[in-house]
Prior knowledge:
By secondary structure, the chain is α/β, with parallel strands linked by helices. It has helices spanning 18-30, 49-56, 74-81, 92-100, 106-113, 126-130, 132-143, 169-180, 215-226, 254-262, 305-312, 328-338, 378-390, and strands spanning 7-12, 34-39, 60-61, 84-90, 118-122, 147-148, 152-155, 161-165, 190-195, 200-201, 207-208, 230-235, 247-250, 270-273, 280-282, 299-301, 317-324, 343-348, 359-360, 362-365, 370-372, 376-377. The strands form six sheets. It has an eight-stranded mixed β-sheet with strand order 13-12-9-14-17-18-20-21, with helices on both faces. A six-stranded parallel β-sheet has the order 3-2-1-4-5-6, sandwiched between helices. Strand 20 (362-365) and strand 21 (370-372) form a beta hairpin. The longest helix has 13 residues, at 18-30. The chain is globular. The chain starts with 6 loop residues before the first strand and ends with a helix.
Amino acid sequence: MLLQGKNIVIGITGGIAVYKVCQVVRNFKKLGANVDVIMTKNATQFVTPLTFETLSCNPVTTDMFHRSTHYEVEHISLAKKADLLVVCPATANIIGKFTNGIADDMLSTTFMATTAPVVVCPAMNTNMYKSVPFQTNLKTLQERGVLVVDSGSGFLACGDSGSGRMAEPTEITDFCVNVLCPKRDLLGKKVLVTCGATYEKLDDARCITNFSSGKMGSAIVTSALNRGAEVTVVLGNHTAAIDVRANVVNVATTRQMYDEVLSRVKSFDIFVMSGAPCDYRPEQVSDSKIKTDDLTVKFVKNPDIAQAVGKIKGDKFLCVFAAETDNGVQNAKSKLVKKHADLAVLNDVKHNDVFGSDTNKVTFVTADNVTDYPEMSKADVANLILDRAVK
Length: 391
């Protein structure tokens, strides 16, 4: 089994998302891992330790001063034993403790003592998640090497709707598998990823843009890094977290994205055009806010980034995305040829919830084949794309 012989310590803190961790534990056990669970006192108010003892087949640690039948400093023992420490849900409180070196319970002391990779999965109210103190703490942990499976957006238990919803168990499992068993088949390769939406100004108050969250691009960036590549992301407007290991080039407009990508074509081996640049821009941008009952805007075509790359890439790998509502395969085939691409990833945006989702249902279109895939995490889609690039 994929995780046979791996020791995973799961730290569980007090949040309603604790119920999702039951599936995370089951997933790891099915893959052959040994799982030890540490629960904070608040976590036990949501799900009992007995549940996790049953699922993990191991005693659950809840007490800093629990007396074992043999002498062993337990937080040191678990810290040394762990091949990976996963904290889910990770509350604002535990993130604050980790950032500031506070070690006052079993989980925080284990975090301080371990040398294993650490993965945190934030979950909290959307206002807490967006707060400056939390975002500062999370960024600090990332800069120190802590890995993050960022929260998604959706309906929260408190009744609010927005970011702060813990990632789904499958996404957490996939991320951790990539950390523990990474492919290193992209060592020495340079990957350029476009990510997020561009915008085009109408006036100083308004703009034209699209619904891209950047989650697909973010997944490709992380997967490529985990597989050993040097990654540069040309980044537009986004809500998804971008792996801090990547080289980031921020852009706003399509023409800026075009210039940054085209200036780098000679230096890169793989191009994944997962960004969502605006195809058109207003011909005129008003110097002042437009105030009128009737507005007619004349648009002009923006440069085609992927097509420009395709014309000069030679034998380098180019992946393009086709977000379609009708005649999907036909349009994806047309885009594949027009842009001189090696792979077109078709998204049916009419029938699938693609924008902002943690999962995707895609069709791969190549010069000689059309392959449909079931719904899967965007991390899985990213690895399928990179598998094609390696081939």
